[in-house]
Amino acid sequence: MSKLKLATVWLDGCSGCHMSFLDMDERLLELAELVDVVYSPIVDAKDFPDSVDIALVEGAVASVDDEKKIKKIRAHSKMLIAIGDCAITGNVPAMRNPIGREAILDRAYFENATIQAQIPCVVVPELLKVVRPIHEFVKVDVYLPGCPPSADTFHTALTALITGEPLDIPALTRFGA
Ligand code: SF4
């Protein structure tokens, strides 16, 4: 069997889902027999490839940059998996929604600034008015909840998806797990 192309993406999340993915430890070596990691914070690829078989996406959509990225990822991925509660519901990043973007920016860049109080307009992407889960922008094929999903969950789910075995996600994980 030829190897599948796997991408992992980090939008607005804490990287905890990626840390849990890495917690598969030696099972990552088994996984490496089945997939090539073609794009990820843990490899050096700078641009999302033209064709990916499985894209794992951590984090919510919080900025103009995130929105562009998730649309590009969807266009170039056969299967898109939302990993973790932030990607699926907004979770922690969405806690800013009731406060409002302007109040958050004021707090960060004016009230707490001791010098050069200003909202950055270069390098730092512009925040969207509200943080939203990724399915509000693109079609999601598989939802893998948890904060974060455990390493066992990643291992079982990925193995099943790669080999085409049945996958019972509620038996593996839940929101807040
Ligand atoms: S779901 Fe939890 S662990 Fe994953 S990015 Fe969000 S806060 Fe971090």
From TrEMBL:
The keyword Oxidoreductase applies. The keyword Oxidoreductase applies. Residues 14-161 form the NADH:ubiquinone oxidoreductase-like 20kDa subunit domain. GO terms for molecular function: iron-sulfur cluster binding; oxidoreductase activity. This is NADH:ubiquinone oxidoreductase-like 20kDa subunit domain-containing protein. Keywords: Oxidoreductase. InterPro entries: Hydrogenase_assoc-protein, NADH_UbQ_OxRdtase-like_20kDa, NiFe_Hase_small_N_sf. It holds the Pfam family Oxidored_q6. PANTHER family: COENZYME F420-REDUCING HYDROGENASE, GAMMA SUBUNIT (PTHR42845), HYDROGENASE SMALL SUBUNIT (PTHR42845:SF1).
